[in-house]
Every structure is written in structure tokens, then in C-alpha cells.
Design goal:
The longest helix is centred in the N-terminal third of the chain and has 26 residues, at 2-27. This protein is mostly helical and 134 residues long. The protein is globular and about 55 Å long. The chain has 5 helices and 4 strands; from the N terminus they run H-H-H-E-E-H-E-E-H. Strand 1 (57-58) and strand 2 form a beta hairpin. The strands form 2 sheets. The protein has a two-stranded antiparallel sheet. A two-stranded antiparallel sheet has the order 3-4.
Length: 134
């Protein structure tokens, strides 16, 4: 009976984790949704992440600057994106294809929020003084 309970708990956990991962992929799929919808999703989730102090920064580029660069590229018709450096004085060395940059910005915005949510549940696993007596 205990093994059956363990199996059902693990199966439920795997199912919910995978379904959420698929949801992130659906929210950020440029081919299905179109680039403008993906950028809109990124803006919505990034605004919430930024309000909580969770904005991603990768390759010296904040996610907000990446979203702005994608919007500028859409308006100008450019095929590549070169966002501003996080200090805001010059362009970053990072050059990305437009569709990839939009997808990346969306993933970063959603992932920032999901990691914060998961951290509330799993932070105890990373603490050295976890309460066990050795």
C-alpha cells in the first residue's frame, strides 16, 4: 500500500512538472503564436518578475533590454537583435536572431517567476543545517 502511494505521488509530481514545462513552451512558441504575441507574453511576465526583483540578466543584458531590442527590430524590420548592455551606455556584444531573441526573452520572464515559486518549496533541500542529526 505504501509503495502504491509513493508511485502515485511521484507520477503526479512528474505530470504536473512536465505539464508546466509544456505550458512555458506553448507560451513562448514563435512559430505557433507569432512573434508579437510572444513579445507581449514576455512583457507581461517580465513586468511581474521585475516588480518582485527577479529579472534575468544573461550575457550582460537585462531581459527588459532584450524585449525592447526585439520590439525595435520588429518595427525596423531587422533580422538580428543587438540589445543594450545592462549599464545602458552601449550595445552589448550579444547578437541574436529575432525569433530566438523573442523566445529567449519570454522563457526568461516565465522562468524567473517559476524558479521563485519552486524555491519556496525546495529551499530547505539546499540548507546545510537541514535538521538531520548525523
Amino acid at each position: 500500500m505504501k509503495n502504491l502511494l509513493k508511485i502515485s505521488v511521484v507520477a503526479t509530481l512528474v505530470w504536473t512538472t512536465n505539464s508546466f514545462a509544456l505550458d512555458v513552451n506553448k507560451q513562448c512558441d514563435v512559430e505557433k503564436l507569432g512573434i508579437k504575441k510572444v513579445v507581449t507574453n514576455a512583457k507581461v511576465y517580465n513586468k511581474e518578475a521585475k516588480a518582485k526583483g527577479l529579472e534575468f540578466r544573461r550575457l550582460n543584458v537585462n531581459n527588459t533590454d532584450l524585449i525592447k531590442a526585439v520590439e525595435e527590430a520588429i518595427a525596423s524590420g531587422a533580422k538580428t537583435v543587438q540589445p543594450m548592455h545592462f549599464k545602458g551606455k552601449k550595445r552589448s556584444k550579444t547578437k541574436l536572431e529575432l525569433k530566438y531573441a523573442a523566445q529567449r526573452a519570454c522563457h526568461f520572464a516565465i522562468t524567473a517567476l517559476t524558479q521563485a515559486k519552486e524555491a519556496k518549496k525546495t529551499w530547505r533541500l539546499a540548507v546545510p543545517g537541514d535538521g538531520y542529526k548525523y
